[in-house]
Amino acid sequence: MIPPSRFRRAGILFVAASFSFSLAGCAAASDTPASVPGTAEASSAISSPQASDGRQISIVHALGTTKLDAPAKTVVALDGPWADAVLMLHGTLVGYTETYTHGTALGGYLGDLPERFGADATIVGTPREPDFDAIAALKPDLIVGSGETSGEHYQRLSEIAPTVLSEGAPTTWKSRYLVLGKALGSEGEASAMLARYEEEARRIGGEINAGASDPTISVLRFQNGPTRIYAAGSFPGTVLTDAGLARPKSQRGNQDFIKVTAEQVADVDADRIFITTSPLGGERSMESFRATESWPEIERRTVAADDAAWVTSESLPGAYSILEELARTFHVDGPTVPDGFAGYAGEAQDLR
């Protein structure tokens, strides 16, 4: 049995901090949208959320520059990672979209955040087909989402409320918090949250490496389609990198994922293999791997992980959940989480 969750709470230190990551590919500043959706990385020059003389907040993002007359309070999020970010930064989430993989549910790894900051949130369509009337009825101060999925609707969304659309690349998920923190008037809180997370990742990874002699980690996802190993360029890959945990040699490149078949099952081998199962055909996909001669030996090192947290969240709550599952697996203290975030307390599942 894996020990129960061991989250420890701590208040956030609302101070500025420096980070090891960068905001890449800043879009050119413009009051009009870029011509090609989703071609520039979401980023922002972080400054005071609103000057004392009442100047606008300007946010450079994937499709142009969006200006706010005052920090936003109510937000519609057109994809899951943005919804997570709104909740984590204690904005009021008034609308969010249904997803193909997980339907209308917000991630269980979010703890009590949906109840506290999104209790009245309603569904406003899907990322690719937002319900414009439903969004307008909510009268949000801000609309956020991904240029990749919602970019073609940018002009129409901007007519409803100021809209910020990011590139959505998993390797730059942290920039979402700085951009949103600027829009919400809580840059210091966003910076401190990221600094605290990175500090906890280093601590947990260091304790794991010391106690388990620098173990290698694989992340394998069974889904409807080719099975994937998530490599260094993926969201779980960035969390493992932040923790300083090693990957098998084949997974150290910058790619997001590597497709594997049952015949290539040996490629997933590592000291610990975290396995997620998509609710869409994941169990069926796993059957072919279970039928191979190599699987019984590999299965001894597998750990069932939360698919939503590890793969689709691309968010700070999801990253904390990954750290917690790593800590439980290697029997070290779990992460200290920010005040107001109950954290994920899921239990391990039996894969066999």
Automatic annotation (TrEMBL):
UniProt cross-references to Pfam families, sorted A to Z: Peripla_BP_2
PROSITE patterns named in the record: FE_B12_PBP (PS50983), PROKAR_LIPOPROTEIN (PS51257)
Major place of residence: other
Superkingdom as given in the UniProt entry: Bacteria
Fe/B12 periplasmic-binding domain segment(s): 74-334
GO terms for cellular component: outer membrane-bounded periplasmic space
Subcellular compartments: Cell envelope
InterPro entries noted in UniProt: ABC_transptr_periplasmic_BD, Bact_iron-sidero_bind
Residues making up the signal peptide according to the UniProt record: 1-24
GO biological process, one term: iron coordination entity transport
Alphabetized UniProt keyword annotations: Signal, Transport
PANTHER family: IRON III DICITRATE-BINDING PERIPLASMIC PROTEIN (PTHR30532), IRON(III) DICITRATE-BINDING PERIPLASMIC PROTEIN (PTHR30532:SF25)
Family per similarity comment: Belongs to the bacterial solute-binding protein 8 family.
Protein name from the UniProt record: ABC transporter substrate-binding protein
